[in-house]
Amino acid sequence: MGMSLLENFTEDLLEEAAIEIFKELEYDYIFAPDISCDGDYPERPDYKDVILKDRVKDALFRINRDLPQEALDDAYRQIITFNSPILVENNRYFHKLLTEGIEVSYVDKGQIRTKRAYIIDFDDVGGKKNNNEFLVANQFTIIEKEERRPDLIIFINGIPLVVIELKSASDENVGIENAYNQIQTYKSDIPSLFNYNAFCVITDGINAKAGTITANEERFMN
Length: 222
Prior knowledge:
Blueprint: H1 2-24, E1 28-31, H2 53-63, H3 69-80, H4 87-100, E2 102-108, E3 111-117, E4 134-138, E5 142-143, E6 147-148, E7 152-156, E8 159-166, H5 176-189, H6 191-195, E9 199-203, E10 208-211
Parallel strand pairs: 1-4, 8-9
Antiparallel strand pairs: 2-3, 4-7, 5-6, 7-8, 9-10
Helix pairs in contact: 2-3
């Protein structure tokens, strides 16, 4: 009993420490139950939602001021529409939208025009224009094939780009491989989250490794 309390305590401390690091990096922080369907700030109408819809739409508006609403609506539709039953294909599709921009069409003075809308302002990585919003959330429950709650999710402009899984180093039976295995479980049980994933971080508080959704354990690098 004493040991299990210690493990939970240590994992909670690890989570708090990680959140503090992000706050020092000037990330916003939200305790995810506060923004759920039944929380104080219902940004998520449904536990199936893995993006923060209003934040995504606000970012599209901020970053693409030259585009009309019709084009921004088209961009948003492409962000939430995935056509493949294969996770890796969906992830590749979204990565292309993220890095190359989203091709949108709209009517301007009777002419159909085509431009690119961007989800992230890559010219504003330093945050001078405040075009990009960096957010860390913990206890973010997602219900898809199963109900799961990753430890930390990093959202940029409302898009869940990074999943961080923490395991307590105080328990000699639980190592970093348990965190890796947990990520594999999430990919199977809540695959929609990983349509958007850029990379995953696993840590036991001593070692931290990063990898992509296709990386096996050996390919997760310090």
